[in-house]
Specification:
- The protein is α/β, with parallel strands linked by helices.
- The strands form two sheets. The chain has a six-stranded mixed β-sheet, with helices on both faces. Strands 2-1-4-5 form a four-stranded antiparallel β-sheet, covered by helices on one side.
- Helix 3 packs parallel to helix 5, helix 4 crosses helix 5 and helix 5 packs parallel to helix 6.
- The N and C termini lie far apart (39 Å).
Length: 262
């Protein structure tokens, strides 16, 4: 059974149709990279799946359970949306860390807020909070930041801030991790450290969807590649099929342009 199934997703902003019937599915532990020019709909697709935007049409299922169906006219409550969002962890382009909190607090904030909804929270508060702190420290160790627990975002490099945001996304134990251009806000010399972290996560069989322009990285880390153009999937397949031997003319033009820039 697919861990994620996306069927016929549509999204428009005013008169502009950004997504025009996007469908794909992926299995647990799979790494899927989404390529495409700016404006092709890549980020909007992630935001629709993650409920940061509401799709105008389509169905989204996780582990066989439908979490969104545009044809269902019953209104999703804020609690419904929040519960569905817990399936996903999101790593943004621009880090989005809270400047007033240190590294450990940034990673533990959401789990501690969520823990308060547990009926047993008050009876076991000390143990629950200690477990959240311990899990956060383990995640920060995995991204190489054990020595930065008490540091604030302003004291970190861009690469370190992005690694904190990766640990934060993992803290709620999501089924699928999303990356939206995770290296685009970084200087070239810091890009490598983030790609190294993502590569290590792939080796741990964490299910990931990565929107990226890093073609070489996508080729090496991905099980499958999707190329989007003008709101549709123009081509998809293995890295060898899409990157090394593309069939679609738009895919070929995009890859040629990227190679010229590199």
């Amino acid at each position: 059974m697919s861990i994620l199934k996306v069927e016929n997703i549509y999204k428009r902003f005013g008169k502009i149709e950004v997504l025009k019937g996007v469908s794909f599915e992926m299995n647990k532990g799979e790494v899927l990279s989404i390529l495409g020019s700016s404006g092709s709909g890549k980020t909007t697709l992630l935001r629709c799946i993650n409920f940061l935007e509401k799709a105008d049409g389509g169905v989204i299922s996780v582990d066989g359970d439908v979490i969104f169906d545009a044809s269902d006219k019953s209104k999703m409550t804020a609690a419904d949306i929040r519960r569905s969002q817990l399936n996903f962890g999101m790593v943004f382009q621009s880090f989005n860390l809270f400047p007033q909190y240190n590294v450990l607090e940034n990673v533990t904030l959401a789990p501690k807020l969520l823990a308060k909804e547990d009926p047993n929270y008050h009876a076991n508060k000390k143990a629950i909070l200690a477990e959240i702190d311990e899990h956060a420290k383990e995640l920060l160790a995995r991204v190489g930041l054990s020595e930065k627990l008490d540091s604030y975002p302003c004291q970190l490099s861009g690469g370190q801030q992005q690694r904190v945001s990766i640990a934060r996304a993992l803290a709620l134990k999501p089924k699928i991790l999303f990356f939206d251009e995770p290296t685009s806000a970084l200087d070239p010399e810091l890009t490598g450290e983030i790609l190294k972290v993502i590569r290590s996560l792939a080796q741990q069989n964490i299910t990931m969807v990565i929107v990226t322009h890093e073609i070489g990285f996508a080729k090496n880390v991905s099980d499958r590649i999707i190329f989007m153009d003008n709101g549709v999937i123009a081509e998809q397949g293995t890295p060898a099929e899409v990157i090394d031997n593309p069939k679609n003319e738009r895919t070929k033009a995009f890859l040629n342009l990227i190679s010229q820039k590199e």
